[in-house]
Automatic annotation (TrEMBL):
InterPro entries associated with the record: NAD(P)-bd_dom_sf (IPR036291), SDR_fam (IPR002347)
Protein name in UniProt: Short-chain dehydrogenase
Keyword Oxidoreductase: yes
Record's keyword annotation contains Oxidoreductase: yes
Family to which the UniProt record says this protein belongs: Belongs to the short-chain dehydrogenases/reductases (SDR) family.
GO molecular function list: oxidoreductase activity
Record-linked SUPFAM superfamilies: NAD(P)-binding Rossmann-fold domains
Source organism superkingdom: Bacteria
Keywords of the record: Oxidoreductase
One Pfam entry name: adh_short_C2
Species name: Subtercola boreus
Coiled-coil ranges per UniProt: none
């Protein structure tokens, strides 16, 4: 059997039990990786990990630094090292005008989508340094590159991920660690379905989502996962600090 891009690599995926995380985890596994499914939903993570050739589930709440640190410790105890991190866990939050924003909603989205990404970088980079280097792909969003109405905490956090990606890439370039991000447009995952269902007019939102980008329709989770694997692999050896839109031309308009 010919060598694959992630043979003998250990890949740590946050939010790996469903959506984009699960799609990427499955593709990493298909290309030879040992995959750590890190998710707050430990039952879902355990069930999914059992379907992979070599999967391991850990319960991780990315908004809790102690939980993130423990998750990486468990992964290293199980596999010995970590080589790749898909820093993907996130939520959408409520859709509200900024001046009407529920402060609890602001804090929850910021804690998970913002602080959570930082915590995974903090403890994940420490793990990669111990392994001699590696690659990180963060999940931002087109909302982090452009403005969208009624989701200010989400936009705030996703824009912050773009900046964190650049900072980490520059800071650890000489340590053999590359850090990039993907910025997907609307992808029909459980997260986006919830976004549609909780909109003031779900039918109008569904129609808007389907016509959001110059290329008609929506990308699949697999479409995004393909870009994640490229950035994480040696095929992208000279790419770092980059946020790659997967958006059918949305940010080009």
């Amino acid at each position: 059997m010919s060598a694959q891009r992630f043979d003998d690599k250990v890949v740590f995926v946050t939010g790996g039990a469903s959506g984009l995380g699960a799609a990427a985890a499955g593709k990493f596994a298909a290309e030879g990786a040992k995959v750590v499914i890190a998710d707050l939903n430990i039952d879902g993570a355990t069930a999914f990990a059992a379907t992979l050739p070599d999967g391991f589930a850990v319960k991780v709440d990315v908004s809790d630094p102690a939980s993130v640190e423990a998750g990486f410790a468990s992964a290293i105890e199980h596999y010995g090292h970590v080589d790749v991190i898909f820093n993907n866990a996130g939520i959408d939050g409520k859709q509200q005008k900024l001046h009407e924003m529920d402060l609890a909603n602001w804090e929850k989205v910021r804690n998970i989508n913002g602080d959570g990404v930082f915590f995974v970088l903090k403890y994940g980079i420490a793990a990669l340094l111990a392994s001699g280097g590696g690659s990180i792909v963060n999940t931002s969003s087109t909302a982090g590159l452009t403005a969208q109405d009624n989701i200010s905490p989400y936009t705030f956090a996703k824009a912050g991920i773009v900046g964190l990606t650049r900072s980490a890439a520059v800071e650890y370039a000489k340590s053999n660690i590359r850090v990039n991000a993907v910025a997907p447009t609307v992808v029909l995952t459980p997260l986006v379905q919830n976004f549609i269902d909780t909109a003031p007019d779900p039918k109008a939102m569904a129609e808007r989502m389907a016509n959001f980008n110059p290329i008609p329709g929506m990308p699949t989770a697999d479409d995004v996962a393909n870009a994640v694997l490229f950035l994480a692999s040696s095929d992208a050896a000279w790419i770092t600090g980059h946020t790659l839109p997967i958006d059918g031309g949305y940010v080009a308009v």
